[in-house]
Amino acid sequence: NVAKQAKAGAAPFGGQQPLHNHHYHHQEEEEEVVILKVDGSRLPKISSAGCGGYLSSASQDWICGFVQKLMFTPTLTSDETEREAILRGLLWVKEKEKKKVIAYTDNEGVENLVNSGRRCKDPLNLIHGIRDLLNSDEWEASLRLISGVENAVADRLAHKAHSQISYDLEEIKDPPQNCLMHLK
């Protein structure tokens, strides 16, 4: 019991607890913001679609990435692959139990549609799913726009998804060689 009190920061045997201890403990509990950058990719000439992205710290240090092959149909649009990338990326980060995430896409139309709250034609319910995730009480999440140049790593990961055999999400521990020059 004394050990439990000591671990909790309480002073054993009625001693006084230093004031700075409580403040320090509070700072430890603060969840760091993580950055998610995602991209979708559609190659109709080879009937292939995929998405990819990666998670970094607020200081842009690589944490991990993902690639996922998507089911291709002739009617699948570039916007839909981007929506899939955002949705799957957010779900992936949520599974990691992160509490603060800023997601980035280089597709202005999709970013605008998600953040505007407007009703739209969304047969796959991707926009609805993205909005539900962003508005979840379980975390703080937002979607923002970045340039294609700033999204080069996610773009390369999305292209890597075309070579996947499985449709399962594959997590990538280390950045692929072709991404290194684009990381901080």
From TrEMBL:
InterPro entries, A to Z: RNase_H-like, RNase_H-like_dom_plant, RNaseH-like_sf, RNaseH_domain, RNaseH_sf
GO molecular function, one term: RNA-DNA hybrid ribonuclease activity
PANTHER family reported in the protein's UniProt record: OS05G0353850 PROTEIN (PTHR47723), POLYNUCLEOTIDYL TRANSFERASE, RIBONUCLEASE H-LIKE SUPERFAMILY PROTEIN (PTHR47723:SF19)
Organism superkingdom: Eukaryota
Protein name (Swiss-Prot/TrEMBL): RNase H type-1 domain-containing protein
Annotated spans, Disordered: 1-20
Name of one Pfam family that matches: RVT_3
Residue ranges occupied by any RNase H type-1 domain in the UniProt entry: 38-161
